[in-house]
């Protein structure tokens, strides 16, 4: 993303921060400066040129209208014009061009400044991440458990902590139907509750009772350092580095490298890499992290990208490296084994780390099955070559389509069903513990694996409280994995 940073970071970052709080900043500009048809033309031609599954969509065929997005960037025919006119909006057209059976991750965005900011870690947030669960015995009523409080965020400064339970928002009980409306507000009040087991080990008779406590939270522009925790812990005389890493954000690669320098200085012998809340990010940052974990494979292939038939010339390899993008030397631990913690929220670049390290070192995977996203994305702009040169200033639409399949050196994909852990263990509201301590069951499970000869028992899945599968996204680029441009 070097080009994107050079062009946008200095010029537009202030504007973007302001517009994060006012999402309609550019709506009038869109309506007044360019027609919807021209935006739809950009959508079709960008998807024709770059979409990984364009051969599976008849309307994206190069022969469909006698034009294509690469050679005929600004050409139109009567048939093509009539096709575009059949759609009321760019969004409606875009949705028809997705290969639904394999694509839950391609996105159209009306304001690409939000995406550029998110790629550098800046989003509008109150600093809370949570999971939603069904109240035992109900298919509609929900409660939430705070899983992560971002450092120095609004929530952190208000004293909220991991493991707190909430039942209502603004005094309204959470349900499947109202959860998005209530929890997507910029300002809301959480109404806290107690989780009661009622003295039994059975989930079915558990209850959630409001406890009278509440707190109001407001979202603000916040830049997250993805290095949530980086420390070396002493367990039975073994120095274990613990890194909770929440996003592959390239602007923090220097700080990530410094964390590994700290691990080196403190004599780390083992590494627990916690990716349970990491939805992805930069492929190049994943290469840097893998090179910090290892160090003995410099120049060898870490991963491969394979594009659609229109973009075969772009197929490429990513190699282990001993330097960052700014040429700074990478601090490597030269490990032959790493312990990786995951959840169902671990996606794309997090899965890339596991899949692409496995041909080289032992990866002990602990936690829940991952999201199952092997494809990379690209931020595509309305310009001659769909890049950052001479972008159409009449609107701020951009696409983030799936553009390539990412494999390891052996050309093995991450399965759509996700990566299955070696030691399954799913977090529940009652067992979250405190991150970075032995009260956290996932970390404790890894420590047992490191310090004893006995593999910890898997958690019994049948006793789990049902988690709502459709969660609220905390970032506009969550679960996306970006290639270099």
Task: List the SSEs and their pairings.
Layout: H1 2-20, H2 27-33, H3 36-50, H4 78-85, H5 90-96, E1 107-109, H6 112-119, E2 122-125, E3 128-134, E4 142-149, H7 154-157, E5 165-169, E6 172-173, H8 179-183, E7 187-196, E8 207-218, E9 220-223, E10 227-235, E11 238-245, H9 253-265, E12 270-274, E13 281-282, H10 283-293, E14 301-307, E15 316-319, E16 337-342, H11 349-357, E17 362-367, E18 375-377, E19 398-400, E20 402-408, E21 423-424, H12 441-451, E22 481-482
Parallel strand pairs: 11-12, 12-16, 13-22, 16-17, 17-21
Antiparallel strand pairs: 1-19, 2-9, 3-4, 4-5, 5-6, 5-7, 7-8, 10-11, 14-15, 14-20, 18-20
Helix pairs in contact: 1-6, 3-5, 9-10, 10-11
Task: Provide a short characterization of the protein structure.
With 485 residues, this protein is α+β, with helices and mostly antiparallel strands.
What can you tell me about this protein's structure?
This protein has 485 residues and is an alpha+beta fold. The chain has three domains: 118 residues, no CATH class; 92 residues, PDZ domain (Pdz3 Domain, Roll); 208 residues, 2-enoyl-CoA Hydratase, Chain A, domain 1 (Alpha-Beta Complex). 24% of the residues lie in helices and 25% in strands. The protein has twelve helices and 22 strands. Strands 3, 4, 5, 6, 7 and 8 form a six-stranded antiparallel sheet that branches. A six-stranded mixed sheet has the order 10-11-12-16-17-21, with helices on both faces. β5 and β6 form a beta hairpin.
């Amino acid at each position: 993303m070097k080009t994107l940073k050079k062009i946008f970071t200095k010029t537009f970052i202030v504007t973007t921060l302001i517009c994060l709080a006012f999402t309609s900043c550019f709506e009038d500009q869109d309506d007044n400066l360019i027609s919807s048809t021209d935006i739809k033309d950009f959508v079709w031609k960008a998807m024709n040129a770059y979409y990984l599954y364009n051969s599976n969509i008849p309307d994206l065929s190069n022969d469909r209208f006698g034009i294509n997005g690469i050679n005929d960037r600004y050409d139109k025919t009567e048939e093509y014009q009539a096709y575009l006119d059949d759609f009321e909006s760019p969004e409606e057209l875009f949705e028809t061009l997705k290969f639904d059976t394999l694509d839950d991750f391609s996105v159209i965005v009306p304001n690409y400044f939000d995406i550029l900011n998110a790629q550098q870690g800046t989003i509008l947030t109150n600093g809370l991440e949570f999971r939603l669960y069904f109240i035992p015995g109900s298919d509609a009523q929900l409660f939430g458990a705070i899983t992560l409080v971002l450092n120095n965020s609004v929530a952190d400064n208000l004293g909220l902590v991991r493991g707190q339970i909430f039942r209502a928002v603004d005094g309204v009980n959470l349900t499947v139907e109202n959860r998005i409306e209530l929890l997507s507000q910029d300002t809301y009040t959480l109404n806290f509750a107690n989780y009661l087991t009622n003295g039994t080990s059975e989930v079915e008779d558990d209850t959630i009772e409001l406890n009278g406590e509440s707190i109001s939270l407001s979202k603000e522009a916040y830049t997250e350092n993805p290095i949530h925790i980086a420390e070396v812990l002493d367990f039975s005389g073994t120095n274990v580095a613990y890194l909770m890493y929440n996003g592959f954000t390239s602007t923090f690669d220097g700080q990530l490298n410094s964390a590994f320098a700290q691990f080196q200085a403190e004599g780390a012998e083992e590494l627990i890499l916690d990716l349970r809340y990491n939805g992805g990010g930069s492929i190049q940052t994943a290469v840097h992290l893998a090179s910090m974990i290892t160090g003995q494979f410099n120049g060898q292939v870490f991963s491969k990208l394979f594009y659609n038939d229109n973009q075969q010339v772009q197929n490429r390899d990513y190699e282990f490296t001993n330097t960052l993008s700014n040429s700074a030397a990478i601090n490597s631990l030269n490990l032959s084994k790493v312990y990786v913690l995951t959840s169902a929220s671990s996606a794309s670049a997090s899965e890339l780390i596991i899949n692409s390290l496995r041909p080289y070192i032992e990866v002990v995977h602990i936690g829940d099955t991952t999201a199952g996203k092997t494809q990379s994305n690209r931020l595509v702009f309305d310009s001659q070559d769909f890049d950052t040169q001479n972008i159409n200033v009449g609107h701020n639409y951009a696409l983030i389509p799936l553009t390539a399949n990412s494999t390891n050196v052996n050309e093995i994909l991450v399965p759509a069903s996700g990566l299955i852990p070696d030691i399954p263990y799913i977090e529940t509201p009652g067992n979250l513990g405190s991150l970075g301590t032995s009260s956290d069951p996932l970390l404790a499970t890894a420590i047992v694996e490191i310090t004893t000869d006995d593999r910890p028992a898997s958690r019994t899945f049948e006793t789990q409280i049902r988690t709502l599968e459709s969660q609220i996204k905390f970032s506009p680029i969550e679960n996306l994995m970006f290639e270099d441009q």
